[in-house]
Each structure stands twice: as C-alpha cells, then as structure tokens.
Amino acid sequence: MIVKYKSFTETSFDRLELYMQYWAPEGKAKGVICLVHGIGEHSSRYEHVAEKLVANKYIMLTSDLRGCGKSQGKRGHIPSYEALLTDIDLLIETAARLFPNLPVVLYGHSLGGSLVLYYDMHRNSKLLGLICTSPWLRLVDEMPGLVVGLIRFLYWIIPGFVISSGLDPKKVSRDELVVEKYKSDPLIHDKTSFRVFIQFTNAAKYILENPGKLNLPVLLMHGSDDLITDPEASVELYSGNKEKISFKLWNGLHHETH
Fold this sequence. Notes:
Elements: E1 3-11, E2 17-25, E3 31-36, H1 47-55, E4 58-63, H2 81-98, E5 104-109, H3 111-122, E6 129-133, H4 145-157, E7 162-164, H5 176-184, E8 191-193, H6 194-209, E9 218-223, H7 231-240, E10 245-250
Parallel strand pairs: 3-4, 3-5, 5-6, 6-9, 9-10
Antiparallel strand pairs: 1-2, 2-4, 7-8
Helix pairs in contact: 3-6
C-alpha cells in the first residue's frame, strides 16, 4: 500500500502554530476524515487508524489540539471552548483547500468526541457527517459535588490553574502494549486547567440534554467496559435521537475502541 504523507502547520485565529498532518492514498480518494483527538494526547497516536482508512481509499487529516503534542499553547489549558471550535473550523477549511470537492467527515474521540458533537450543534457546516467514539459526556469516576463546586468557584478566580487530569493509563486500553506506549510517550501530558474541566463538563451536560439539536448523521461507538467515559451516557444520547444517530456498543472494549 502506497501512502502519501505530509506534516505542516497552520496558524490559528490567535496566532498559534497548530501542527497538522495527513495520510492519503495514491489515486482518487472517496473522502476526507478530519480527526480530533482526546485529552492530553496527540494526533500521531492515530497513525494506525490512518493506515486503515487509506487502505480503504480515504484521506485522514488531523491536528494536534492547542496545548497538545507538537502544537503551540499552554499545556492543558485553553482560552475558551469557542477557541477549540474555531480551531476545528480551521481543520475543516484546510481539508477543503487541500482536497477540494471531496466529502468531509469529522471524527472525534473522547474529549474530541464531545467537541465534534457540540460543534455540530452550534456550527452550520457542509460536513457529510460525524464519527464519535467514547465521547466525554459523563465520566465513570465522577468527582464529588463538593469538589466540583470548589473547582467552579476557583474557575472564576484562577481559570488557567493547571492540575493533573487523574487519567490512569491502565484504563486506556486492554492491550498492555498500548498502555506501555502511552506511559512512555513524551508528547502525552496529564495536565488540565480549571477552565478545561468546567467548560467541557458544561458542554457534556448540554449535549446530553439536547440530543435533538444534532444536525448531521452520527456514527456513535463506545466500548462496553470503558473505565474513563461512561458508555451509558452514549446510550442515553442515542436514545434521545435515533433518527440521527447510529450506535454500536463494542462488547468488552475499553476506552480506545480504535
């Protein structure tokens, strides 16, 4: 299999250099899959996904989120949730510029999964649809209400204060090799700011309460044994809009279904 590959940077609206890369098949492609990765990780972890897509004549274009991987920005922090939505705008615009006249699908995993769902509810786009895996709609280990209340209070005073996300690498996958690679990857961090936690918690609540606001068809997938994001929350979302959502629960899989 021959794969065309390129890495490059694009400049965000607030002048950050965002690292992007794509994998493409030789000859005519069927479409472009724009990937949005999860919290604290980076897009190069999905190279094996890109290879599978290329083998089936799809292009995968992706970006390291601001503050992640090889992109600029404070590790684990964002200026606003809106900034991330605008970064997704840039990713989609880049796909249209590089690969004109091809259909585009937005694919988000975990934190990226909630991002693409919220994006669809608030942006008018010409996307073909969404792929969403293990979205952050509700965490399996929810923080006690008093702790969340304290974080909400501190959010207004020091929103950029960064703490550990508390993500246990052993919960990422049943595959021990994947876990070891995750633990030793120098581009992965466990940092998250009060702003990230509160704004993503608010977004997750909004998505679950408004499934009817989804505009595009969604392929939603979750592992039944996910120990990070709650698969039952994905079931709830699906139940709220079966007209738009196709749902697959992968029996026995953990967080990284891919």
